[in-house]
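User: Reviewer 2 asked us to show a designed sequence for the structure in our supplementary figure. I'm pasting the C-alpha cells here. Could you produce the per-position amino acids so we can include them in the response letter?
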C-alpha cells in the first residue's frame, strides 16, 4: 500500500501512512502507544486537584512521561485518547453522594464503552468522612480485561497531609 485515498479526510502516504498503520496496529492489539501515565482527576474544592498534581510531579521527577487532565474542565474525549495512548493511569476522584465526582463517572463510562484493557490503574480517592470513590471506580471498571491495579489505594481525607502524601 502506497496511498490511502478515503472518501473523506486526508490522503495518507509516506510517513503519514506509516504512522497511521503503526497506530492502527497498536490499537487493534489493545496496546498503548507509549510508556507514560495519565493522571485524570475530578473534584470540587481543589484538594483532589492538589493531590493529582503532586502525584504528577513525583512521577515526572522519576523520569516518567505524565499528562494531567482535569475532567471537570477538559472534554472526556481527550482523556479517553490519553488513556489509550499511555500504559498507565491514575484516577483521582472526590467522593460525591456515596460514589464519585460526575466528571469521573462520564470518563469511566466512556472507557468502558470503548473497551479499554491491558493497562495499570492507580486509584486516589478523597473524602472527609466516608471516602468511597476508589471502591466505586473499581466497580465501574469491572469486566474490563487485563487491568492491573496498583497495590496501594491512596485516601486523602479532605486536604493532603503527611500520611496521604506518603501514600
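Assistant: Here is a per-position design you can include in the supplement:
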Amino acid at each position: 500500500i502506497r496511498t490511502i485515498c478515503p472518501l473523506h479526510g486526508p490522503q495518507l502516504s509516506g510517513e503519514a501512512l506509516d504512522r497511521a498503520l503503526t497506530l492502527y496496529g497498536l490499537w487493534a492489539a489493545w496496546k498503548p502507544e507509549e510508556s507514560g501515565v495519565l493522571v485524570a482527576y475530578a473534584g470540587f474544592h481543589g484538594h483532589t486537584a492538589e493531590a493529582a498534581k503532586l502525584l504528577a510531579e513525583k512521577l515526572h521527577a522519576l523520569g516518567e512521561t505524565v499528562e494531567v487532565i482535569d475532567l471537570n474542565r477538559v472534554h472526556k474525549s481527550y482523556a479517553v485518547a490519553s488513556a489509550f495512548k499511555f500504559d498507565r493511569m491514575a484516577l483521582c476522584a472526590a467522593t460525591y453522594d456515596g460514589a464519585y465526582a460526575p466528571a469521573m463517572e462520564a470518563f469511566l463510562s466512556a472507557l468502558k464503552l470503548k473497551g479499554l484493557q491491558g493497562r495499570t490503574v492507580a486509584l486516589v480517592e478523597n473524602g472527609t468522612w466516608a471516602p468511597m470513590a476508589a471502591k466505586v471506580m473499581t466497580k465501574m471498571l469491572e469486566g474490563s480485561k487485563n487491568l492491573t491495579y496498583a497495590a496501594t489505594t491512596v485516601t486523602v481525607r479532605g486536604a493532603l497531609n503527611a500520611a496521604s502524601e506518603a501514600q
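For the response letter, you might also mention the following. The radius of gyration is 18 Å. Helices lie at 14-28, 47-61, 76-85, 102-114, 133-140, 162-166.
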